[in-house]
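User: Can you predict the 3D structure for this chain?
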Amino acid sequence: MPRYFIEVAYIGTLYSGFQIQQNAKSIQAEIEKAFKIFFKEEITLTCSSRTDAGVHAISNYFHFDASSLPSKQILDNINYNLNAILPDDIVVKRIYEVAHNAHSRFDALSRLYKYTVYQNKDPFVADRAYYYPYKLDFDNLQHAAGILMDYVDFTSFSKKNTQVKTFNCIIMKSEWMIKDNLTVYNVEANRFLRGMVRGLVGTMLKVGTGRLSINEFRDIIEGKDCTKADFSAPSRGLFLLNVRY
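Assistant: Here is the predicted structure, written as structure tokens:
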């Protein structure tokens, strides 16, 4: 049976996460509902990854199997019709056929996130960034971000009761930048733990304000104790930018 990838983007504010959850509103549930309305049959989607409640995505993926999807030209029209059914905060960007054994989760080589912080009150970014009106030492922020690539065990930045076999992640990119008066953290890794990016951001902001030293930041990483990290950075500032295959 042919297999297809579906690329989507969404504003996660009103949703409990990307993956379907019982008695909760999710991105997956909304898209499966739209598929059922359009195709008049149940189509089950498989997620590339989970994103927490309130997290946004510029590009994220599902895969699904279907025996009777039409040509690419008609698929483009299907995108239009699905988007007419979907709520305004979710968009189907494209649907395309892949190898029968391609997997949106297990074939992913890396995922790229950004987290945005603003320090001067600005209503135009308030629902897409974290208002943090404290003086930041940018060099210390950047130093802390670079340190992360020295490590692979990120137990300290995984929320309690995370059900995983290993807390090891390979970080390929970790850097802060200033753009349009916003302070933005970009991080790419082969995998992420539950709450990991928000834990990294919250803890690094403590380094940036001088409440933690660089050595204390290293101690938190090496201590493998999530109670020492700061997960207070809100989900609204976090975007999944891309899943690389």
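The helical segments are 27-39, 72-85, 138-147, 196-208, 214-223. The chain is about 25% helix and 25% strand.
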